[in-house]
Amino acid sequence: MEYLLACPDKIKELLAAKFILFLFDYDGTLAPIAPTPQEVVLPEETKIILRKLSAMPDCKIGIVSGRSLKDLKKAIGIQGIIYAGNHGFEIEGPKLKFESQVSPQFKAGLRKIARDLSSKLKGVEGVLIEDKGVTLSIHYRLVRGKDMPLFEKIISEATAFCVKNGKIKVERGKKVYEIKPPVQWDKGKAALWLLASQKFAIGEDKVISVYIGDDKTDEDAFRALKGKGITILVGGADRPVADYYLKDAEEVAKFLHLILEAKENKLCVN
Ligand SMILES: [Mg+2]
Predict the structure, then answer these.
(1) Which CATH number fits domain 110-180: 3.40.50, 3.30.70, 1.10.3470, 2.60.40?
(2) Global model pTM greater than 0.70
């Protein structure tokens, strides 16, 4: 896994591609991590670059996040781009709409687990339960180390039966547990679906994807998109799961700025 900012040639090669579908995770990728999801803010400079890139004729921007679609749209606040919320279970964008069909029984079951967890986790300080409709997030960034064994035990006991019966899936992200429908749909499948939609509109061999993410759930997208463009892990080189890495959200902005500058120059030359 190479450090992307040390590979200017790779960046130039990217620009030669006719059309780039950029797919970004949000928390920890475009915006720095904060103690709670509500405190995460998209830096103004990044927002400006994203707006400019999305106005380019040969770029498309998509945000693929574990946040609910509604929350994600509010947090980013840019019109005319693709939003894939709830790990791709809800997608909305120009001429695009996808909503995964989950059964009312699943939703009722999820509400029950949410109620159960919120009562059992009352004694564990720092837990934040977020009900996102199709999925449930249990954030534990603020839970103290000494409370972690109890926290883990409660999560495991509250979900074990449903996991065993194939009624839910439990996955671990960065300082968060995600409870999801038991189907084969994740950020990787959603990213492939988005890439296919762009290829259908633009042309099969004219589109490449650039996927940037920092989370465990982004690894599904890194695997799915292998060979279809480039994949970039944010956070350093410790897990060799993508083609390249960047250190933090600030470096993501730097990389996007380089692309934008080069694309603007290209437009001037043409
Ligand atoms: Mg993230």
Answers:
(1) 3.30.70
(2) yes
